[in-house]
Amino acid sequence: MEMKSAKIKTVLCSLIIMLSLMVTAQEMPITGKVKTHVGELEFDHGVPTKATSDKLYYELDYHRAVQAYLWSLPIVGQAQWRQSYLDLYDLKPNQSVYAKEFNDRSLILTANESTPYMFTWMNVKEKAVILKVPPGPIIGLYVDFWQRGLSDVGVLGKYGGRGGTYVFSGPETPVDNIPYIEGATYLESRTNNIWSVVRFSGPVENREELMNGMRTYYFDEEPKMDIVPANNKPGRNYQPRGMAYWETLHKILQEEPVEERDRFFMYFLKDMGIEKGKPFNPDARQKEILLDALIVGEAMAKNMVFRERLDGVLRDDGWRHIIGRVEGSEPGDAWEHTQRTKYYDRFDPRSRYTYEACTVSERMAFAKSGFGLGYGGMFLDVNGEPLKGDQSYVMRIEPNPPVELFWAITVYDTDTRGLINTDQQKAEIGSAHETTQVNEDGSTYVFVGPKAPKGWESNWVKSIPKRGWFPYLRLYFPTEAFFDQSWKMPQIKPVDFKDYEK
Question: What is the pLDDT of residues 50-96, one digit of tens each?
């Protein structure tokens, strides 16, 4: 009898729980009000009231604008980068900017300080562009304006540092304007605009000779290399804020064909006043939605960077693979150069990466032991707290970093995602810097804080009180211990620098 009574109680409890869940999960009323995440909605005989209709259309346009922000981050970043050079130097297609000073790269998303850069803009709408790369220690990559990798060049490219000739065309290049060159590599971009990032390694005295040995020119011109010195001016490619973001997007969309994958987004943007072939003159309602969506969209992008939930990229030591994935893991949402999987294109990884960094190539995404580039990022300290400019921290680089060329810890500002910029004019410690001190056991301390630890000034990066920061650990030509994780990346520990002073 007691057993039967217990069973009845159990059944009654289950029914009560089910009924309470049914009450909690509200149904759409025929007439009346319902509470939702976007506020209270009201219906009259199944029809939204006028106030509810206005609210729903506002929310529809607003959520579409947030997603359009996340979708457009890569092309707006590229357009902003080009625009900064148009403003600074009146840059022309096939011209290159040579950046070797601190300010030259301080506002470039996660640039490094170990190598000089050459940035080149190409436009292939009317004519193909020819690139000739000389033999030597050149590490270069070419991307379209949606930041999909077209090719590595130089030591990581097809010719393995032995030089090479490439012919670039695009979706609208007339066939008659694509020349035949025997032995050349042909690359077809899906955008009319193309961007390159080239780094020069090897002895410092040979770097400018390598740079001047490259050639970028239209097929019907004489081979040439037109180089503009950056002159310590801050070119910038972190995305603009405010209406300037949407104005930049509208402008660059006029230059590029619409791909099949993007047609729904073009529909979303149409209701916000952004269309191909039409001027951008948003009304007050559209501006309100676009500006609010921009704030929430950027907050979502920040969340993806600093509190990431993507699969397949987190190492055992807590660092994240910025590009690529943990060897042996499922691909998950790792970022790579094609942006494509069998059934979908990666969306969140693209938004995350192109908010935080810029450009990608196959050898950045899929490095091999002794061949490629390894990147790790860390965004919280050992206590799970954000990295604060008021606090002092130490990172201990273990002996024998698994790298053939060089390693570096570079410190970035969380707001600009560019080099942390102080009166020190220094944001990096690493093996390519002659002043870096190495401990007797082969380890290296990297200090970050508002004031230098006595005796360790050469291993210190100055932080900015009330601003956040984050580090990248770069390994140029990483070896096996990086991939199998037997060499551990450093933890970031808040400390009192007095404990380390000499």
Answer: 999 999 999 999 999 999 999 999 999 999 999 999 999 999 999 99
Whole-angstrom distance, CA of residue 266 vs CA of residue 11: 53
CA 128 distance to own-chain centroid: 28
Tokens 């976007």 — which residue? 38
Q: What is the largest CA-CA distance in the chain?
A: 101
Summarised one tens digit per residue, pLDDT across range 358-404 is 999 999 988 889 999 999 999 999 999 999 999 999 999 999 999 99
Q: How much is the pTM?
A: 0.92
Alpha helices in 254-370 (DSSP H): 263-270, 284-306, 348-356, 362-365
Q: Burial level of 202, CB count in 10 A (0-12/13-18/19+)? A: middle
Q: How far apart are CA 464 and CA 448, in angstroms?
A: 10
Sign of the dihedral defined by the CA atoms of residues 181, 137, 84, 63, in that order: positive
**What is the distance, to the nearest Å, from the Cα of residue 33 to the centroid of all Cα atoms in its chain?**
44
Choose among 86, 91, 129, 94: nearest CA to 225. 94
Distance CA 351, CA 353 (A): 6
